[in-house]
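fwd from M.: "can u put these together and see what the complex looks like"

so here's what she sent:
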Amino acid sequence: QVQLQESGPGLVKPSETLSLTCTVTGGSITSDYWTWIRQPPGRGLEWIGNMFYSGGTNYNPSLKSRVTISGDPSKNQFSLRLTSVTVADTAVYFCARKDGTHWGQGILVTVSS
Amino acid sequence: IVLTQSPGTLSLSPGERATLSCRASQSVDSNYLAWYQQKPGQAPRLLIYGASYRATGIPDKFSGSGSGTDFTLTISRLEPEDFAVYYCQYYIGSPRTFGQGTKVEIK
């Protein structure tokens, strides 16, 4: 059974970089593709992007200039990097296998000074 | 592709049938239409993929249908654990898109 777990700081200052890691167990990030999705408090789901380890990445155009998703197969982890954050980036961030067959529990990241 | 879900909130009693709608801004490939359930404080759970196929472990009270621009999630008889928010998703191309959600609440 594939399991995912997000980790990273829960508080980031405006203009700084948000960095999160998703650790995968029960599956390999070199197979399938892996996704980041976020959900602002009280709102709906927003697709951030995905990573095909052997085949590149796709990003939401609304975030593309600030987002990088990458993988580390030695640790079976994939990561999200979002630069120049603002309060609008405050959200629960989820990692998922493919488009959502399996999800992490989510991590709340607050952008505040 | 923009997905519009209706209604925004559905107030029903346990035992009743729930019918949720997801309308696409243009015709989509039904092979890539999914439905998720999300309860407060939890990650979404995949219910339906390919418009009508139940995900592993999903009970048959959940069913999906539709094609083209109109898709429906039906919950045949609501149980207390079914009161939640439901999202549709189109999962081909980039960016992937979600509907804004339908909240099914206890009447």
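replying to her w this: Chain B has no helices and ten strands.
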